[in-house]
Structures are given as C-alpha cells and as structure tokens.
Amino acid sequence: MQTAMIRLPLFCAITLFVLPAAGAAQDNPYAAFQDRDIRALAPAEIQGLLEGAGLGMALTAELNGVPGPLHVLEEAEGLDLTPEQLAATEALFERMREQAGELGRQIVEAEEHLERRFRHRHLDRETLFRLTDEIGRLRGELRAVHLDAHLDMLPILTDEQVERYQELRGYGDPDAMHHGHDHHGHPPHR
Questions:
Q1: pLDDT band at 160, cuts 50/70/90?
Q2: How far is it, in rounded angstroms, from Cα 47 to Cα 134?
Q3: Which residues lie closer than 8 Å to 93 by C-beta, 6 or more apart?
Q4: How many angstroms separate the CA atoms of 77 and 75, rounded?
Q5: Does residue 93 fall inside a structural domain?
C-alpha cells in the first residue's frame, strides 16, 4: 500500500513532463517536413519520380489482372518467358522507365518552383492555379505512362502466363479478378 502511494505521485510527475512533449509532437505532424528541400515530397518520392518508379500509379491495372513489365521481369522464371517475350518485356520496361523518369523530373521541377514561390511569398492566385494545374497534368500523364505499359504487356504474354502471374503475385483466383471477362477486357467466348 505504501509503495503504491509513492508510485502515484511519481507517475503524476512523470506524466506532467512527458505528456506535453508528446502532445506537441502530435499537434504538429508536419514539423519534420520542414527540413525537406521540397516540403510536399518525401525524399523517397523524389527519388522514385526521378528514376521512373511506379510509386503505386498502376495499381488499378495490377490488381485487376493486367501485369506490368517490372513485375513480369521479376517473375520471368516462374512465367517461363521465351527469349522473345523477355526481350519485348525488357524493351517495354526501359521505354516506360525513360518516359516516366522524364515526367518525374518535370514534376519535381514544378514542385520545386511551387515551393520557391511559397517560400518567398511570391505567388498570386492565377500563378497558383497555373502551377498546380501543370503538376496535376504531369502526374496524370505519368500515371497514364505506367498504366499504358500494363496494357502493352498483355499482347506479349499468353493467357496462361497472365493467370500464372496472378498466382505468383499472390492475388488469388484470376477468374474472380476478371468478373467474367478475359484479360483483354472482353467477355469470354461461349
């Protein structure tokens, strides 16, 4: 009982010092972002944009049974790609990465420009909308490049390889993903 009475004031004292510090960090979840060159972009996102990485932009294709070239290359052995399929997939991946990297560079530059304008308080509404429209257009184009590469992957693979891809990636029943359509989006022939 006496030990409990000693612990209670000690607990209260610790709580008084710890909670305000924890609360301050919770009150400002963006505080750590102030040290970034471009505060709206994490360093890993900048790197991914510059390298032409997918950054989840093609998930709508990937998770609907339309493989992408990077993951096809990663699963090449399990898919038993022919030398021709492998060469076509590598070429598709390189083309996608080049296009995506160039768009990523443009996005980073546009974000830097917006960042500088805000930092120096040199921004009016018209410029704000022009810059954000440009960033949105570039991001949309970048996403289309990644999704288009998934579409371009379909003619390279056989139906069986597309199904095997789904299994290798752990997506479950490929037929359930298509909801009664083949991997080209057409209803099955009966």
A1: very high
A2: 20
A3: 69, 70, 73, 149
A4: 6
A5: yes
Secondary structure class of 42 (helix, strand, coil): coil
Is residue 112 within 8 Å of 49, Cβ to Cβ? Answer: no
> Domain range spanning residue 138?
40-169
Establish if 34 belongs to a structural domain: no
- Specify the number of domains making up the chain: 1
Domain assignment present for residue 52? The answer is: yes
pLDDT in tens, 23-37: 455 677 888 787 778
Query: How many CB atoms sit inside 10 A of residue 182's CB?
Result: 15
Q: Which residue has the tokens 């209670």?
A: 8
All residues at 6 or more sequence positions from 55 whose CB lies less than 8 Å from its CB, including other chains: 45, 48, 49
